[in-house]
C-alpha cells in the first residue's frame, strides 16, 4: 500500500470512543523483555518471550528492498523473495511451504522499499524445525532457470492485477515517480513491466549473493520460547553460515523541491480521486532534534485529521447534504530508510470536483495552522495512540514485525515505549507550528485520477497460480 494511517511502525489499532480516555491514558501494558544476541558471522538475533499462548513467530528480515535496486533492474528484490520458496540444495520447489504446513504452521513473505521479510507462525515446540528450514534457504537458495521463468510470469500477472488494473495504484506509482528525483523510493516495489520483461535468472542470483549475507539480516523470535534455547538454536543453524561483508551503499539523497508538481492519470474507474503528498522530515533517532520533534507533531496532526471516526476531515468533508467527499484520509510516513511524506487524499462526492476537494483538504490544514487544536482533541489522539500500544502486544506477529522494522531502520528496539513518552510532551502549539511549516506549494506534489469509461463486459483478472501474498 502506498501509505499507512498515522504512525506507520506502531500498527495502531484504534479504539472505540466510548472507552474512558483518561483511564486509558494511564494504562501501561507489561513490556515484554527483549534479548539481543550477535552471532560471530554477523547475524543479529532478537528474542521476545511472550508466554500467553503456546505459539511462536519466527521471522528473518533482510535489510534489502526495492530501494537497493538500480535502474533497469527494478522488481528484483520482489522476484527474489518469490524464488526463496523455489528450492535449496536439499529442498525442491514448494517443499519449504509443505513442510511448514505439516508442522501445523503458516508462513509467507513480503517485500517493501526498505526490507524483505520471511516469517512462520508455528506451535512453539516446532521452532527448531522452522529455524533449520529458514537458515537453509537463506544460505543455500537455488533453482533451475525454468523455475525462475515460470515465477516471473506469476509476478508479471501480479503486477497487472494489483497495479495495471487498479487505477489508484497506477496513480500512486506515477506520483512516486514524480515526487522523487534522486531517491530510489521513486521506483515501484514490484518493478516496471519493461524491467520484468528483460530480467534474467542470473539477475536474481547476483542480487541474492550480493545482499543475503548474515550481517545484513536479523532473526526474530517472539512467543512461548526460552531466550537461551533460541540462542543455542540460532548458533546451531544460522551461526554456521559463512560471514561476508555487507556491500557498501551510496547515499542517494533527494534534492530540495523547488516548486509544486502536478500530474494526471487517466484510467477506467468509477470515481475520481485526488492525492496530495507533502515532503516532510523523517524520524531518524530518539535524539531530540527539530526534525525528530516535528515528525512526532506531524503524526499527531495526521491523527487529528483522520485518526478516529468523526475526526476533522471526516466531519468537515464527508458529512451533511452538501458534502464534498465520499471518503477522505490523511497519513504521515514517520520513519524509513528513505524520505517520508505527509499525505492527504479523497474521493469527490457526486457533482464535486477534485479541484474543490483539493482546496478543502488544504483548507483544513490552514485552519489548524491558524487556530491550532483543542486540548480535548489533543488528549483524545494521545489516548488512542497510547491505547494502541497496549492492544498491539496481543499480536506476537506485530511484535516481531515491529522489532524487525526498528532494526532495519537502525532505531533502538525499545523505540515504541520511548516514543510514547515523547508523544505525551507534544503540545497544541507544536501541532499548530508544523501545520504552518510543511504544507506550502514548494513541498507539494498533487496527483489526480481522471476516470474513464469502464468496460461493462470486462471481467476481473483472476489471481495467478502461485501468488503468495
TrEMBL record:
Residues passing through the membrane, by range: none
Pfam families linked: Peptidase_M16, Peptidase_M16_C
PROSITE patterns according to UniProt: INSULINASE
Cofactor names: Zn(2+)
GO biological process entries: proteolysis
Keyword Signal tagged: yes
UniProt entry keywords in alphabetical sequence: Signal
Stretch forming the signal peptide: 1-20
Molecular function per GO: metal ion binding; metalloendopeptidase activity
Assigned protein family: Belongs to the peptidase M16 family.
Protein name in UniProt: Insulinase family protein
Amino acid at each position: 500500500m502506498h501509505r499507512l494511517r498515522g504512525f506507520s511502525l506502531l500498527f495502531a489499532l484504534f479504539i472505540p470512543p466510548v472507552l474512558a480516555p483518561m483511564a486509558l491514558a494511564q494504562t501501561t501494558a507489561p513490556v515484554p523483555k527483549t534479548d539481543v544476541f550477535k552471532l560471530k558471522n554477523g547475524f543479529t538475533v532478537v528474542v521476545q518471550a511472550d508466554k500467553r499462548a503456546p505459539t511462536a513467530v519466527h521471522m528473518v528480515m533482510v535489510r534489502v528492498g526495492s530501494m537497493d535496486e538500480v535502474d533497469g533492474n527494478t522488481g528484483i528484490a520482489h522476484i527474489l523473495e518469490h524464488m526463496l520458496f523455489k528450492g535449496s540444495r536439499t529442498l525442491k520447489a514448494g517443499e519449504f511451504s509443505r513442510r511448514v504446513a505439516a508442522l501445523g504452521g503458516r508462513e509467507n513473505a513480503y517485500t517493501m522499499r526498505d526490507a524483505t521479510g520471511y516469517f512462520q507462525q508455528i506451535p512453539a515446540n516446532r521452532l527448531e524445525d522452522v529455524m533449520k528450514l529458514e537458515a537453509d534457504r537463506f544460505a543455500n537458495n537455488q533453482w533451475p532457470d525454468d523455475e525462475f521463468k515460470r515465477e516471473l510470469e506469476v509476478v508479471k500477472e501480479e503486477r497487472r492485477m494489483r497495479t495495471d488494473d487498479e487505477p489508484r495504484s497506477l496513480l500512486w506509482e506515477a506520483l512516486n515517480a514524480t515526487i522523487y528525483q534522486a531517491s530510489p523510493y521513486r521506483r515501484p516495489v514490484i518493478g516496471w513491466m519493461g524491467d520484468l520483461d528483460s530480467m534474467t535468472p542470473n539477475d536474481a542470483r547476483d542480487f541474492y549473493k550480493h545482499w543475503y549475507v548474515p550481517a545484513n539480516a536479523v532473526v526474530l523470535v517472539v512467543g512461548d520460547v526460552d531466550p537461551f534455547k533460541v540462542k543455542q538454536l540460532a548458533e546451531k543453524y544460522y551461526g554456521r553460515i559463512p560471514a561476508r561483508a555487507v556491500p557498501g551503499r551510496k547515499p542517494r539523497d533527494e534534492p530540495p523541491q523547488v516548486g509544486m508538481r502536478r500530474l494526471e492519470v487517466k484510467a477506467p474507474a468509477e470515481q475520481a480521486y485526488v492525492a496530495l503528498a507533502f515532503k516532510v522530515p523523517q524520524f531518524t533517532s530518539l535524539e531530540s532534534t527539530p526534525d525528530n520533534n516535528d515528525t512526532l507533531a506531524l503524526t499527531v496532526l495526521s491523527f487529528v485529521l483522520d485518526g478516529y471516526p468523526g475526526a476533522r476531515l471526516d466531519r468537515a468533508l464527508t458529512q451533511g447534504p452538501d458534502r464534498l467527499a465520499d471518503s477522505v484520509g490523511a497519513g504521515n510516513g514517520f520513519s524509513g530508510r528513505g524520505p517520508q511524506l505527509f499525505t492527504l487524499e479523497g474521493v469527490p462526492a457526486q457533482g464535486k470536483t477534485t479541484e474543490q476537494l483539493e482546496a478543502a483538504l488544504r483548507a483544513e490544514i490552514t485552519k489548524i495552522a491558524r487556530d491550532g487544536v483543542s486540548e480535548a482533541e489533543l488528549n483524545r489522539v494521545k489516548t488512542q495512540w497510547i491505547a494502541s500500544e497496549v492492544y498491539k502486544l496481543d499480536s506476537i506477529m506485530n511484535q516481531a514485525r515491529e522489532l524487525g522494522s526498528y532494526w532495519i531502520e537502525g532505531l533502538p528496539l525499545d523505540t515504541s515505549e520511548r516514543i510514547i513518552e515523547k508523544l505525551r510532551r507534544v503540545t497544541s502549539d507544536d501541532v499548530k507550528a508544523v501545520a504552518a511549516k510543511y504544507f506550502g506549494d514548494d513541498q507539494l506534489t498533487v496527483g489526480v485520477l481522471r476516470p474513464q469509461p469502464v468496460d461493462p463486459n470486462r471481467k476481473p483478472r483472476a489471481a495467478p497460480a502461485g501468488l503468495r501474498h
